[in-house]
Structure formats: C-alpha cells, structure tokens
C-alpha cells in the first residue's frame, strides 16, 4: 500500500482508493510499523527538506498525515498483492454485459476524482482500459485523455501481445507492447512530433446590482483602520462607526459578498500539461451593476441597469479582461476548444444570459471582438458548459425606447433569452417569497410554462438576496410593511377608531398568520421610531409587529397623524449559503472545476439547523423536485430567523453633510414596494 497526494494520483489508482474513514487508522498502523522509511512524511506534508526529522516530531507528523487523509488531501492506495479496498471510493458497476459504469460510493468526494469519474463514463472507459492508462494524472480533464489513448487499443486488445507491458508508478500495466510493424519504413521513420492541443476553460462571474466583493472588503478595511481609535476613546460605538461608513461609502460597500463572489473564489485556475494536451483555466469576476471598485456607486446604473456601470458595460469590461488574461498565457498555438461557465445573480444573472448570447455569436460577438482586439483567433469549437443563475432580474429602464418600467418584459438592448440549444446545462434558483414590483423574475420557462430538458428552475424559500447572498450575518430588520395612511382630521385624537387603523389591523393579522414572528424569533433591540441609528437603539427585547403612529404638528391647526404597519426583528444571513452549497454541487457534477467548500470557513459555514435543511433540499433536488418541500417547523424556523422581509415602504437613508438622513419622495412610493397583486411578476424565457 502507498499514501499518495491527490495531485500525484494516476488513473489506474482510482479503483484502488480506500475510503478516508477506513484509510485513516489503516494508514496510521502502516506508518507506525514501517521500519524501512518508505513513507516520506515530509513529502506528504509538503515540508521543505530543511524542516528536519527530529524523532519527537514523529507523532505530530503522523497525526497531520492522518488528518490529511480524513480531509481527502491524501489517499491510501492498494497495490498489487494488497487485495481490494474494504470500502472503495470508486468502483465499477455492471448490471448487465456492456452496461457498466464507474460510480462514486461517497457523495463528498474530492472534485478531481468526481469529475474524472464523470469523464470516464462519458468516454466509455472500461476497467481494462483504465488499467492500461497507467501513469496519466487525474486532473479534471485527463479522463478524456485516458479515453483518447484507450480507443486505439480497443482492436489491439484482441491481438496477442508480444512483449510484457511496461509499469509506471504502479504494478498495473500501462501500455501493451505494440505489434511488430509490417513495413520497414514504419521502423525507420521517426513519428512527426505533434503540436499539443490547447484547451481553454473560462469561468465568468457577473455580480448583481450593488454587489461588489471588492468594495465589501474595502469597507471592512476602513472599519478596521478608522473605527478603532474613536472606539478606544469612547467617542463612538463600533456599530455606529460601521453604520456611518456604510451610508457614506454606498450600498455596495455595506453589502456582504454574494454567492457569485464566493463561487468565483472557488473556481480553480490552473495550467495542466499532459502529452499532447494543454489545459488552461482562468476566472474573471465582474463587480455588480451600479458599482465601481473603490469608487462611489452609480445611481444611473443602479436604477436603469444601463450606462457606464450597467449590464452591457459590465460584460464588455469582463470580456476584455478575459482576452487580456488569455494573451498573458503566451499560447504556443491556436485554441482548440473554449469551454465557458457562466454564473450570475440578479441583474448579473441577466448579464450571464446576455453573455451566452454574445458567445454564441462567435467571432462577431462580444467575447470574439475582445479576442480579435488582442490578436487571438476564435476557437473552432466553443461550448457553454454550465449557466448558474441566482434569481434573474433584468429590470431594465431604457428612456431612449420609452421603456420606463423595470417590471415589464422589455429589456432591450439586453438579451435575456437563454437559448437551450447553445447551453449544455442551466440551473436557476428563484426566490419563492419575493414579490416586489421592481423585482420581476426572468424565468427560464417557455411561455407555455415548460422547461427545456437541459434547464432546471428550482424555487427555494426566501426573498431575492436570501437566494443570491449579500446580507450580513446578522441584521436588525426594521421595516414598514405598509405605506403611511393619513388619518382624517375627525379621527386625529382617536386614530384607533379610524378606518385606516382597521385596515392595518387586518394586514397585521395576515402577517401574523404568515408566521413572520414566533418561537424561533431572535431578541432584538427596541427603538421608538423606524430604522434608527445604532446609537438610538434601546434595550434588547422581543420582536414586534405593530401599528406605528407618526404625529406632526404641521400643517395647522390640527396637525397630521399617519399610520403604518411596522415590523422589527433580528434576522440572520446564513441561509443564502444553502443555495451556495447546492449550486456548487450541481455545477461540480456538470464538470465545473470548483475546489471543495470549506465547511468551517466563516463565509460558507452553516449552522447545524441549516445543515439539516440543506441536506433535505439537496435530496429533493437530486430527485428532480422543482420546489423542495420542508416541514411546517422548518418553514417557521426559516421565516422567523433567516428569511428577510424585502417588500416594504421603509424610506431610503443616506449621508448628507456628514449626517444620516432619511428620504421619502412620496407617501406611497418605495423602490421596494410589493406588486399590486401581492404575487411576483414572472416573465417567460424569450
């Protein structure tokens, strides 16, 4: 037996891998009983030669190796004479002659293994051919190389071998000896060296409106640099400092990184070479609509989806950067194939759909023009492998074409139609609880409500950013669920007896029945008025759903009294990671080169109560459910603790002359107002 790094595994190792659970203690026993030094622990742990081999370090090094085996960074591989693994990670299943396939016995297997197994099955590689593949690496695309090498041998397998096979790294055969050539010229003329094929894979990640991971980090750096000193002097609280900086710098700074940004960080950039094949992988992240990294947010881009920070410019800049990255690779020849993966959230999802349209235009499309500008030939074969969308909302306003409503289905010049014939796989997660007027959904469904066979559209509980990400880990949510209602003068002294009060009382009962507050609600700090500054918050208490009364002395002589329904809660933000984990898995299964999600990373960690929900949703999605169901208790947990309330009339806030200011344009106006029907507006894929 041997212990091998993931990157050092060869194709023939796959059926001989022991599961990490059983491999851990087996490996410990092997290392502890080793008297020959055949296990180079320093190499396995990536320690430099100068690290030293003090005897008292041995137990710690053994523990570190075992931990890497458990984490799938190292593998225990059975060799000839060792028998078979007790619990193999990869095995061949053949229910009937000629119907065999490779299967993974563990769902959480390393990406390189799972992707290679998929490629082995796609290319029909059998155990015999895999054994002949010998020392080929298991990088995610090498399975096609295995198949390429195996196919010429299929007719040779029936011929008698005239020499023993050569062995490389393992005791399994690598290649059979070639039959003697029938012509002298074949033995005298050396084969002409073939130029390696160049395969390019690109991951393009287009973020949503006011989502910009660069700016999120800039705000964190500013908080650390500027809030510490006044905090230590007692001049300001950390919450107040962060609140002021967020208002001053803009929403794209105050928002947390979205799922698109987190997936971009997981996309594997690499350069791999094997015999006659070179594979380059690059990733490009495009900051969201209405944002500029390190600069102020753009109102025009935010409102219209167009302009210098709109969808078209977002893509043009991203295509240019991709072409520049390709140029930096200093390729030795033309690109044989280009494979593209597209991911987007909100307007960034519309951008991803427009990107698919442009890529399909070939050399005349946006990416083709960017390639031509850098002197790069357009590849003969281009594939859009995967499109991953989080709640597509184009919401284009184009005054030039008299399109003034973001909720309609007029999105020119943006092309949101996603042609199923140009995409291998598309997955769209949509927000089941979203119903804002300005957040109409651009569905992947046809006008008849049907989905193409290679498309999936899955409705998950939550609102827009509960699906796409961007909320902080914990947020005090103080929203006006209704617009303000003016109380007539004859009821100013007794608003509880007004018709307006009765209307709001009925709405209050409706929201109580929907279960926004309950046993799973979190404690929240109180305040006398909606949307206060952190310094104005009071003691921690219970969440509230109440009729809020706003009284003004003007205009005279009676003044003015207005009523609105107000909800105050504390809401957590980790639920968006459920769709992150699920999209990551579906994309990986389709061949997207993602590294594994670290469950302990603070940006991707799930509380235990959400892990159960994530697993239940995942199981139903794997069974082809388009709308995974949860128990009543689970839905109450989500709604009361994790799902935000997005459709509201809360006034906008910003900094004016260094002072936090509230702005209300009209009594009933809000960019976040609900649709009149109370249900989401949905547009088909066209």
Protein described:
With 686 residues, this protein is α/β, with parallel strands linked by helices. The protein folds into four domains: 175 residues, no CATH class; 231 residues, Rossmann fold (3-Layer(aba) Sandwich); 42 residues; 99 residues, no CATH class. 31% of the residues lie in helices and 19% in strands. The strands form eight sheets. Strands 8-9-7-10-11-12-14 form a seven-stranded mixed sheet, sandwiched between helices. InterPro entries: Tle1-like_cat. One of its GO terms (molecular function) is hydrolase activity.
Which outline best applies? globular
Q: Structural class of the secondary structure composition?
A: alpha/beta
Oligomer status:
single chain
Question: What Rg, in angstroms, do the CA atoms define?
Answer: 30 Å
Spatial separation of the terminal alpha carbons? 57 Å
Largest sheet features: 7 strands, mixed
Number of DSSP helices? 21
Question: How many structural domains are formed by the residues?
Answer: 4
What integer is the average pLDDT?
Answer: 86
CATH topology of the largest domain: Rossmann fold
Q: Helix coverage percent of residues?
A: 25-40%
In total, the number of strands is: 23
Strand content: 15-25%
Which architecture of the largest domain per CATH?
A: 3-Layer(aba) Sandwich
Q: What is the CATH C-level name of the largest domain?
A: Alpha Beta
Identify the strand order in the major beta sheet. Answer: 8-9-7-10-11-12-14
Q: Uncertain spans, ≥5 residues at pLDDT below 50?
A: 49-55, 134-189
């Amino acid at each position: 037996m041997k212990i091998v790094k993931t990157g050092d595994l060869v194709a023939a190792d796959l059926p001989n891998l022991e599961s990490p659970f059983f491999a851990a203690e087996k490996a410990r026993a092997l290392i502890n009983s080793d008297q020959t030094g055949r296990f180079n622990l320093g190499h396995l742990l990536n320690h430099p030669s100068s690290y030293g081999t003090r005897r008292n370090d041995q137990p710690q090094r053994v523990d570190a190796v075992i931990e890497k085996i458990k984490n799938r960074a190292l593998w225990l591989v059975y060799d000839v004479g060792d028998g078979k693994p007790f619990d193999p990670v990869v095995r061949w299943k053949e229910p009937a002659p000629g119907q065999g396939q490779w299967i993974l016995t563990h769902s959480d297997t390393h990406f390189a293994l799972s992707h290679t197994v998929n490629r082995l099955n796609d290319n029909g590689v059998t155990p015999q051919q895999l054994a002949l593949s010998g020392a080929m690496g298991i990088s995610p695309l090498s399975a096609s190389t295995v198949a390429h090498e195996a196919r010429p041998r299929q007719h040779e397998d029936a011929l008698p071998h005239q020499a023993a096979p050569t062995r490389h790294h393992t005791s399994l055969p690598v290649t059979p000896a070639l039959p003697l050539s029938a012509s002298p010229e074949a033995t005298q003329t050396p084969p002409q060296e073939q130029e390696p094929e160049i395969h390019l894979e690109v991951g393009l990640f287009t973020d949503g409106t006011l989502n910009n991971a660069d700016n999120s980090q800039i705000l964190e750096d500013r908080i650390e640099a500027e809030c510490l000193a006044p905090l230590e002097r007692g001049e300001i609280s950390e919450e107040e400092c962060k609140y002021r900086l967020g208002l001053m710098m803009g929403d794209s700074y105050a928002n947390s990184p979205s799922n698109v940004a987190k997936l971009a960080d997981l996309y594997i950039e690499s350069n791999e070479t094997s015999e006659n094949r070179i594979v380059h992988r690059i990733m490009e992240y495009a900051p969201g609509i209405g944002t500029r990294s390190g600069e102020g947010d753009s109102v025009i881009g935010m409102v219209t989806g167009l302009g210098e920070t709109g969808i078209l410019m977002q893509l043009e800049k991203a295509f240019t950067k991709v072409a520049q990255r390709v140029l930096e690779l200093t390729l030795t020849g033309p690109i044989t194939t280009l494979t593209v993966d597209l991911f987007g959230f909100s307007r960034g999802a519309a951008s991803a759909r427009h990107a698919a349209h442009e890529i399909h235009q070939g050399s005349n499309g946006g990416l083709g023009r960017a390639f031509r500008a850098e002197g790069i030939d357009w590849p003969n074969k281009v594939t859009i492998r995967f499109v991953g969308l989080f709640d597509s909302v184009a919401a284009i306003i184009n005054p030039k074409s008299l399109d003034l409503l973001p909720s309609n289905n007029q999105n020119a010049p943006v092309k949101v139609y996603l042609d199923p014939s140009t995409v291998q796989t598309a997955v769209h997660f949509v927000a089941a609880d979203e119903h804002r007027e300005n957040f109409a959904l651009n569905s992947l469904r046809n006008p008849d409500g049907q989905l193409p066979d290679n498309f999936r559209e899955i409705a998950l509980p939550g609102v827009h950013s509960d699906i796409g990400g961007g909320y902080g880990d914990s947020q005090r949510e103080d929203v006006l669920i209704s617009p303000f209602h003016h109380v007539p003068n004859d009821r100013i002294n007794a608003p509880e007896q007004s018709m307006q009060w009765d209307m709001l009382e009925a709405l209050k009962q409706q929201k109580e029945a929907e279960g926004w507050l309950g046993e799973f609600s979190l404690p929240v700090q109180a305040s006398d008025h909606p949307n206060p500054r952190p310094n104005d918050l009071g003691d921690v208490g219970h969440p509230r759903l109440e009729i809020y009364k706003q009284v003004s002395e003007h205009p005279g002589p009676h003044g003015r009294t207005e009523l609105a329904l107000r909800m105050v809660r504390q809401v957590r933000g980790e639920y968006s990671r459920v769709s992150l984990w699920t999209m990551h898995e579906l994309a990986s299964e389709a061949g997207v080169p993602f590294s594994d999600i670290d469950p302990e990373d603070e940006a991707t960690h799930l509380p235990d109560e959400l892990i159960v929900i994530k697993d239940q949703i995942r199981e139903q999605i794997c069974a082809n459910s388009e709308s995974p169901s949860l128990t009543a208790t689970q839905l109450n947990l989500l709604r009361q603790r994790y799902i935000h309330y997005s459709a509201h009339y809360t006034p906008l806030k910003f900094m004016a002359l260094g002072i936090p200011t509230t702005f209300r344009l009209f009594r009933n106006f809000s960019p976040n107002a609900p649709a009149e029907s109370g249900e989401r507006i949905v547009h088909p894929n066209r």
